[in-house]
Amino acid sequence: MVEPRKTPLYDVHIRSGGKVIDFSGWLLPVQYAGILDEHRAVREKAGIFDVSHMGEVRITGPQALPLIQKLVTNDVSKLSSGQILYTPMCYPTGGTVDDLLVYKYGEQEYFLVINAGNIEKDWEWMQENSKGFDADLVNLSDETAEIAIQGPAAEKILQSLTESQLASVPYYHFLPAVSVAGKRTMISRTGYTGEDGFEIYCRPEDVVFLWDKVMEDGQPFGLIPTGLGCRDTLRFEACMPLYGHELAADITPLEAGLSRFVRFEKGSFNGYAALEKQKQEGLRRRLVCLEMVERGIARANYQVFTGGEKIGWVTTGTFSPTLNKNLAMALIADLHATVGQNVDVEIREKLVKAQIITRPFYKRGK
Prior knowledge:
By secondary structure, the protein is an alpha+beta fold. It contains 8 helices and 20 strands.
């Protein structure tokens, strides 16, 4: 049995009262003060997350762009230097290898951020696909630590620690070399919560110092440490997919409602033919949002029915702290995927009524 790994912030989580669990082979805090309090802090003030478990890959060289264009479904050629792109990465079958972020440093240099549970698989897939391309790949996962500051007060908190003007950084853009509290970092205006925020990439040996400095400067703004529990409820309310739930090797980006990130006009990429066929023939199933009409929480993998017929399953379901409702996302037969339609979710061998509603559940500012 492989022992779970520790991020450089493990001891910080312990001294801060974090309840640590094994997540994708990493020991990470699921909560500190409590998931509901942490969730509300991010929506109303700010929270700080340890995301050092995420994977990072640098791709450079004359054919870095053609290689990435083959790997992912979105159109990386549209990026300007300093800009970031969200994209699925697919198998030839159209199923999803992972979803990731592509950072453009320059015409021949890109930085990819991948999900922690997929690092080994993604790295092997990228290497396999790089054969024949004049491009160099480097796995930087073990050399990179990362913390995320999320919430309405995130900019004010981080601005107190850097001379770089954060207000001038648009959403999904980054600054490649920024001094934060005297440490060299990369800062991006990104996150996985549906709120404004920043992610700070740094050397592992600097991350404890930076965490402590951010916490110190952030306390007057209501900043608190936040764990995986609220990270999941926050991303869920914003309908951001989680690999292994809304996306998987047998779930395509089109089925997951991510068609805007599949750019057929750019030309061939892994999964092009399968996804084009799926688009032309029409989806047989698609991701929908559910609001529970009757009492009950629809958990992942609970079955969804209509008229006694099984039509799909829940991918993620929980109580929404922001909306004070029991909500879920589910992958169901396209025939029944209509807003306003009533369905049943099987909870503890009982059918509980739910209704399909518009997506997303929550959007910042609305």
